[in-house]
Each structure stands twice: as structure tokens, then as C-alpha cells.
Amino acid sequence: MIIEEASIEAVESRLHQHKQFFKSGVTRPIQYRKDLLEKFSAVIKNHEAEIIDALKKDLNKSEMETYATEIGILLEEIRFVLKNIDEWAEPKKVKTAKTHIGSKSYTVPEPYGVTLIIAPWNYPIQLALAPVIGAIAAGNTAIIKPSELTPSTSALLAEMINTHFDPRQLFVIEGGVETTQHLLKQPFDYIFFTGSVPVGKVVMEAAAKQLIPVTLELGGKSPCIVDETADIPLAAKRIAFGKVTNAGQTCIAPDYLFIHKSKIDEFITEFKKTVIEFYGTEPLKSEKFGRIVNERHFNRLTSYLEDGEILLGGNVDAGSLKVEPTLMKPRDFTVPVMRDEIFGPVFPVLEYEELDEVIDFVTERPKPLALYLFTSNPITEEKINGSISYGGGCVNDTLMHIVTPYLPFGGVGESGIGNYHGESSFSTFSHYKSILKQTTKFDLSFRYPSGRFGMQIIKKLLK
């Protein structure tokens, strides 16, 4: 399936329609936003079968994995937003400084306007529509650009959005690199991008030329650390879950493992048991195990298998674009598998003796999007979380921090700028306008150049 590029004229026309629609004020009433979110939820539910089918075609995702990671997470997010939007949208009073006696101060969340949401291919439904929930809740319009690497899902998103919603409120523009370039030249009011670090830099550069605010949800090499006090069978199961879900094509998947040298053999044994439990003795033949998105990424992943000693797995199937869950010992820290974000089911395993070795290794590299620590020692937990900067993560689990709407999700440094989910999504797509309402019943004259004893009073108040 080939996706045609959108012309610059089509992009400009659509943006103009959105600008006019937002200017009309239609999107601002809270009830309008609620009604739109209810409809958004209904459209997702009514297309459940089509979503499952599209993701099967594009990524060989199982029905359970699709519902858990693409559909259910969106429905829960909408439910949470609908429950809380009235409170979030209320003006918030703040304290009055003693220099402003007689006045009242408050902040008012207001929508930015027309937002651009550029989505990736790895979770092409969830990561396209989750930001839209926040954009709607905050009162914005949204133009959505899906990834051309998952063409079945891209076409489905266009059908779901463009035939069920006012095209001036929500609209999907399909296309490839050229279409994205057209979009990035436009004067959007906000850009929300999910994807790789290199493309994130391109997006930020384009936004900077017009001073457009951005959220960048990127990636990087997210470490997983298992110390000598960890429950190894449970750790292996939860780490395998985080690593092989969506065939490892997850921005917050554990990228490499640091494990205490006393536990490495037990971990390999338990990891193998888990893979068999999940996908049988031949994962490449399992319908539950996803495939790599395309041949280019498949070849990239298979090349990593040459970067060290295979400890487990290592088999591939070029016909189905599948790579077996693989544990490997890299030759050294300079090989590509230890430099690149892996984005697949290949898992480098490194052993350590002292925790400081791990901390030094991680902190000498770009700040990761996620970090996972498996330990029963609270001192280790405190030391890792106090020493390493990362976007978010889990202690004794993987991935699950992204599922709760009560936690903001986002990166730091090279792994991203800004965050979303739950109230953070509303905040991301809102500008908080500060307003001070001054009394007219009296006037403090000391602030004026002609004020008597002005300098003495100001010095007492401002110190």
C-alpha cells in the first residue's frame, strides 16, 4: 500500500480552515469539549475490529496486545479526562502579595489554537490519538499526521477521523516525509511530536524558526538494572514483558541490562522459561509475537547480532520479518548495539559488581527516557533514583508507568521535552494566562514617582 503525499496547497488550505474555526470560539465551551471526547471514545469503540485488523497487517500485533496497548489505554484516558476536566479548566486563584493588597490574582487555562500531532509507527493508534485527547480537552483543534510506515493504520485513522468529525476540528493528513516537511513550514500554534531523536531535532529546528512551542516525545537507550537482592524469576518475567511486547519496538522498552554477576546465569534460565511461556519453543512461528515494521529495520536489527556473543535466541526469519527474543553479551561498549537505540527484541546483557559502575555508565551518556530497577533494597532504590536523571520508570516492573493517567509521561534532555497523560495532557495543550484584578476602591500612591515616602515603603516591602 502506497500513501500519496499531500500537496503544500492542501496543507495550507486545511490549516486556514482550522484557524478560522478556532477563531470562531466554538471549541472553547467545556460542554463542547466533553461531547467531542464522548464521540471520540465511541468512534474508537466502534472501530475496534478494524483497529485490530490494521495492526495485524502492519505489525502482526495480537488482539490482546492491540487492545491493551492501543485501544484500552485510550478509552481509560478519555474516561479519566472526562471525570476531571471541569476541575482542570476552572480558573485558579493564587495568593496576593503584600505589595498588591486589595487585588485578586488568578490563572486561566486557555487553548493554544491549532495543534499539529505527528505520530510514529510503533504504536500507531495510541500515539496518534492520545495527544488528541489532551488537545480536545484543552479546547484546541488538531491536525494529525500518521506514520507512512504503517499504511493500513494510517488509512484507518483517516477514515475514523475524517468521516466522523468536523474536518475543521480534527483532520488526518496522510503522507510521507514530503508531507511532514510541508506541515512543518506552517504557522501552527503547537506541535506535538513522537518519534526518534534525529527527527525530533528537525522538528524542533523547524518550530524554532517560527517560535512554535513543542512537546517532543523521543527515546534513547533505557537501562534496566537488576541487583543481587532482586526476585530473579519475577524480574525475568517482567523484563521480558517489557522487552518483547510489540517485538521490542517500544520507546520505553528496556534497551540493555546491567545485572549483578552473581545472578546472570539464573536470569538467563528464567528469561528463557518466560519466552517459552509467552510464545512457545519457536517464537518465530507464534502468532502472538509481533514482526519488525519493515525490511530496513529488520536488517538493522539482524546486524546487531554480530556485535557480540549470543546467550539466548538469535534466530531470525526474513520472510516474516521476525527476530527472536535474544540475549547477547556485547564485545565492548563501542559496538553499534551499545550505541544505537535498539528498538527490537535484541537485549545486551552486561554484568557488574559495584553499583557505582552502573551509575557511571548511565550518567556518562544521554539521559534516558526510562529506567527500570529490580531490587528489594531501599538503599539501592534511593541511590539509583537520586543519582540518575531519566524521564520516568519503574521499580520492580517495566512499562507500567506509562499506563496510569495519574503519572505524567515524558523525557528529559535528549529523550524528550515536555510530558502528557492525564492532567499533564490538559496542561501541555493549555497556556496558563496570569491575570491580576486590581481594586478601584483605593490607590497605593507610594509606587508613583510623586509618592511621599515611596522609597522607604518600597524598601520595607521588597526585601
UniProtKB/TrEMBL annotation:
Gene3D superfamilies from the UniProt entry: Aldehyde Dehydrogenase, Chain A, domain 1, Aldehyde Dehydrogenase, Chain A, domain 2
Residue numbers annotated as active site: E217, C251
GO biological process, one term: aldehyde metabolic process
Spans traversing the lipid bilayer: none
Residues covered by the Aldehyde dehydrogenase domain: 5-435
InterPro entries: Ald_DH/histidinol_DH, Ald_DH_C, Ald_DH_CS_CYS, Ald_DH_CS_GLU, Ald_DH_N, Aldehyde_DH_dom, Aldehyde_DH_NAD(P)
Keyword Oxidoreductase: yes
Molecular function in Gene Ontology: aldehyde dehydrogenase (NAD+) activity
Source species, domain of life: Bacteria
Family: Belongs to the aldehyde dehydrogenase family.
Record-given protein name: Aldehyde dehydrogenase
Organism: Rossellomorea aquimaris
